[in-house]
Structures are given as structure tokens and as C-alpha cells.
Amino acid sequence: MAGQVTVRAAVASDVPVILEIIKELALYENEPDKVLATQESLHNTLGFKEGSKCYAKTLLLYEDDKPAGMALYFNSYSTWRAKPGIYLEDLFVRPQFRGKGYGTTLLATLAKEVLDIDGARLEWSVLRWNEPSIKFYEGIGATDLGKEWQQMRVDEDALKNLAKRGVFGDGK
Fold this sequence. Notes:
The protein is of the alpha+beta class. The protein has helices spanning 15-28, 39-45, 102-116, 131-139, 156-164, and strands spanning 5-9, 57-63, 66-78, 83-93, 122-124.
């Protein structure tokens, strides 16, 4: 049976826990060596360092003061609907806390936030091999956009090369 459950916005002192959970998620996704995040980079990008910008927000779910799960997200925008939304970058519930409804609790908290900002949607990506998560998401009413949309990314060297191309009319 679940103990006392609390969901709250992360604060600066939570950064070590956020990094631990990010590393656990990477291990679950079979990519532990891909994590480049550090406590310092999280402080800088989650808006906890004075003068830094906030690029993403984090919700933490605690059971009896033990960190059980996390949702890291940022605002998105729908041009066709002219409304904001939320893009969920990462959702992770630690294995020992699964099956208690904590993933649903985190998603419901984000859904409420979308409604509070008069937003249009809550969206995220899921790895195709992650059948347990896909079934969970379908169970809460999520729609697979895979037949109509393909996710694209430019990073690392491709990102640097694209940036070097310049813009039309700049003489390059």
C-alpha cells in the first residue's frame, strides 16, 4: 500500500535527485553512457542558478519523503490552435514504486497544468520497444501519432554543420 504521496515542483536542492533519476531512466532505456547532464548543467538549464534561464521544469513525486518519480517537461505551442501546451521530455517512476498509480498521478498533474494555461495538448515520445509504457499511455487515452508523424532530430555534428550554413542573404 502506498504511503503519503506528494507531487511538487522541483527546487534547486532537488538537482542531485533529478540527476539520479535521469541516470536511472538512461539505464532503463539501455543508454547509460549517453547522459551528459551534470548537477551544474541542470542548475543552469532548469533556472535554479541566479541569472540563468529556465528551459524546462520538473515535477517530483515523493512517497513518504522518498523520491519515487519525475516528470521533466517544457512548454510547447500549437500554431493551428494558437494555444500553448506541454511537451513531456521524460517521465520515470522508479521500479520499486511502480504499479501504484504514480505515473498517472504525474501525467494528471501535467494535464491539469495544460488546462490551467488554457492549453491544447500534452504530448511526448515513447520508444517503440517500450511496450509496458505504450500500453500504459494507451490506457490513459493517449494517441499514437506514428502513422502520420515521424520524429526528427538534428544534434551533435549535424547541428553544428547546419548552424554553419548561415541564413539566406547573409553572403555565405
